Amino acid sequence: MLPTRPSAPCSTDPTDPTDFADPADFTHPASLRSHLLRSGLAGVVSTTRERSLSRYRMFVAGDPRARLGLEPERDWLLGDLLHLMARKCGVSADPAHASGQDVIDPDRTIVALGAFAGRLAAVAEAGAPVLIGTGHPHRLLDFYASLAAALSAAGCPVLSPAQGRSVDITTRFGVRTYNLDYVRGVALVREPGARGCASEPGVHTHSPLPLRLALGAAMDGDGPLPAMVIGDHGWLCGAGQLGVEAIGPADADDPAPFVGQAEGRVSVVVPLDDTVRSDYYRPLTRYVLNRACLSQ
């Protein structure tokens, strides 16, 4: 079991985002908060309220596209889910608020980033193996790759089980076969025959099947089992469902990670928009690595 460790003491206390700070110093909560709002990572986000409510209803109805590999321990009603998302993300709990852009509270994002950093510090202190994967390689690959490099430098094995193996995933176009690949320590899926280059970073998927493939291969001897999975969507929920500690980001229209956290199976969920420009996530990387004492 990984040690329990609070947010690392390498920077200013993240619970007070109103302190004076250099606006370019993204290791400081106040500067990070301003960046979250300017970039659309928090505050008014690109996710529409209509999409969020649609996804909440899909989750309540048991649609696997919204559950991301999570099997809730109880039945969730729409009202319960709205109140959970209001507490965790800052969205409106009013079901009558049915249109416009959704919102994420930047202060909740900063608090969650502090908890995220605390878990990174714990896994680094233990030198434990980690598995990192994303269903959003176009946006989040650099964010995760920086975490992979820092954890590897700290002595954590960054795993790559089942590399090159194929997995069938149901999409809106039918069942498609993809290959599991690893780029800079980060798992993703590609179209068969796609070459690993900057113009082909991988495909977008919410499926937990790549995570299950990777963990199944690890159990069969393709490397050790991870002590922690860092990722989004199916990587995050799929790992939590299988009892592996999981941390990662989630958007306002993805209730499954927050339900997993509420039910005790997902360790940390960071509310943020997961579709902004990839370079907008760099200040978040600096912030969490600084707080985890992993800055390179």
Structural account:
The protein has about 300 residues and is an alpha/beta fold. Helix content is about 40%, strand content about 15%. The protein is built from ten helices and nine strands. The chain has helices at about 30-40, 50-60, 65, 80-90, 105-125, 135-155, 210-220, 235-240, 255-260, 280-290, and strands spanning about 45-50, 100-105, 130-135, 165-170, 175-185, 185-190, 230, 245-250, 270. The strands form three sheets. A four-stranded parallel sheet has the order 3-7-8-9, sandwiched between helices. A three-stranded antiparallel sheet has the order 4-5-6. A two-stranded antiparallel ribbon has the order 1-2. The longest helix is centred in the middle third of the chain and has 21 residues, at about 105-125. Residues about 10-25 have low confidence and may be disordered.
